Amino acid sequence: MSTVAEQLVEVLIQAGVARVYGVVGDSLNPFVDAIRRAEGIEWIHTRNEEAGAFAAASEAHLTGQLAVCAGSCGPGNTHLIQGLYDAHRSGVPVLAIASHITSEQIGTSFFQETHPERLFVECSHYCELVSQTSQMPRLARIAIQHALGRGGVSVLVMPGDVLHRTAEHPTGPSAPVIVRGAVVPADPQVRELAERLNAARTVTLFCGAGVQGAHDAVMALAGKLHSPVGHSLRGKEWIQYDNPYDVGMSGLLGYGACYDATHQADLLLLLGTDFPYDAFLPQRRTVQVDHDLTRLGRRTPLDFAVHGDVAATLRAVLPLVAQKTDRTFLDDMLHQHTGALEQVVNAYTRDIEQHVPIHPEYAASILDELAADDAVFTVDTGMCNVWAARYVTPNGRRRVIGSFLHGSMANALPHAIGAAYAYPDRQIISMSGDGGLTMLLGELLTVAEHQLPIKIVAFNNGSLGMIRLEMMVSGYPSFQTDHGVSDLAGLARAAGIPGAAVDDPADLAEAMYTAVHSPGPYLLDVRTDPNALSVPPHITAAQVRGFALAATRTVLDGGVGQMLQLAQANVRNLPRPHRA
Ligand SMILES: Cc1ncc(C[n+]2csc(CCOP(=O)(O)OP(=O)(O)O)c2C)c(N)n1
After folding, report:
1. Which residue from 467, 471, 480, 482 has its CB within 8 A of the most atoms of ligand 1, so it is best to mutate?
2. What is the 3-state secondary structure (H, E, C) of 189-219?
3. b/e for 226-260, b at 16 or more Cβ within 10 A?
4. 10 Å Cβ neighbour count for 3?
5. Nearest-angstrom CA–CA distance, 573 and 567
6. Structure confidence by residue, pLDDT tens digits, 188-199
7. pTM to 2 decimals?
8. What is the pLDDT of residues 236-259, one digit of tens each?
9. Phi/psi at 107 (nearest 5 deg)?
10. Dist. CA 379 → ligand 1 center (Å)
């Protein structure tokens, strides 16, 4: 008979799990040993369980399939938390195996005792203690199905002694449902949606991550309605490419005419977005489509809502939507978008090749140019979010992920580790802040040990730059944000990863080329300007104050990379000349 640990491993293999990320230890040992002996599943050692959870989150995010991490009792569990929050808030299916102290000691304040079944409640859909062998393998299957079915984290709390015991029930076969069915909206809702779209003179579409797989349908609807199409940060990778209706992004990092298009339309249609910054939404004349009923009306009062997948809903409604004839609103917004980008772009491109320290915008634009067409970018929380939002040009094949909902620092490198396992044949680029990279610096050793061909582009401004900016616009002097520029390339080399530092913008293109084309891992330490995006020249003091106080949409206006060329191309292709 197999042990409970062996049974658990067998259930994971049946669910298609190929690896478990984490750090070994005490109560977890029976599980780790079962992995050692099993075929078709491997243990991936990370230097910190937090990184293991981030790596699993990334793998789940990119593939949509279940990914697994594990931590030993007590501190091994508590380290998992950050990455599990990230996975859970991003709605991606991760199972955490949280081993626990031996059963007879639970409740005695034993060495390393925590209560994992309480600890993980807030960052999971399902979190259960397996206290008896008779609960297995059923609870393992329920945990997996919760992670996949509800989209998020499940935690199995496994005392070491239970893992070690002989299984009571045969494992048996299992076929977890991995492919989701479509959420098809009800007919009356589809009809009313069509009536509202037809009745409105002007309609703007605002797209979130829920438009994945619905690009064609959104374009078809925009074409019929002559609608500007804006997006959130998470929606960008799915909708901004091949989009002649693009008016940019909304939110603190936003740019272009998205804000105006969403506020000036007669009707705003939210598609698959749970965009949290309600101050950027008009709070009126809004209709929402989402596959998750709980999100409807969460950010704004709604005139009407439809429960359905975006693609299924749009496919159903399109035949009922009449072709609008007046495209004045769309054309105005496209011109406004281009104008807005032209205005800001000069400030960030003028003399950029001579600017020392290097403009991070310049580094990001070169990276965008040199990165592969199907590269996966993982992006650190901090200013790298801004550079990725504005300079990484989506094309439908590239992926851009980050801790966009939990907003945790240090995510990019461990996310890149998960991405490298998920897609061993694709180029994986970690856009890391120096603060983020050094927060989980040990993961350089993980990259080196497993020879993961990750290209780490470190935006090394010697500063917690995002917070420096926040302090400044809130009227605080910057304090405790700048701790000196570290030799990140030297640290990488010490860890066994080739690396180079670059501080002369004239050398940047060649250095970046070397980095992205190196066959194995590489760290490019780009010495960037901590003052980037501090106060763009056309921003007034009142607007700067407004960033903190009223979330004005303009303060973070900065360079926008190829977005300007895309916008200019869209305007050039307008079917009639620009009206004055
Ligand atoms: C774990 C964690 N701690 C603190 C913060 C607050 N925070 C957000 S961005 C940031 C600075 C990031 O600095 P760095 O990685 O150097 O990137 P930069 O903004 O300079 O590009 C901080 C401290 C956070 N989001 N997560």
Report:
1. 467
2. HHHHHHHHHHHCCCEEEEECHHHCCCHHHHH
3. bbbbbbbbbbbbbbbbebbbbbbbbbbbbbbbbbb
4. 20
5. 10
6. 999 999 999 999
7. 0.93
8. 999 999 999 999 998 878 888 999
9. 95, 5
10. 12
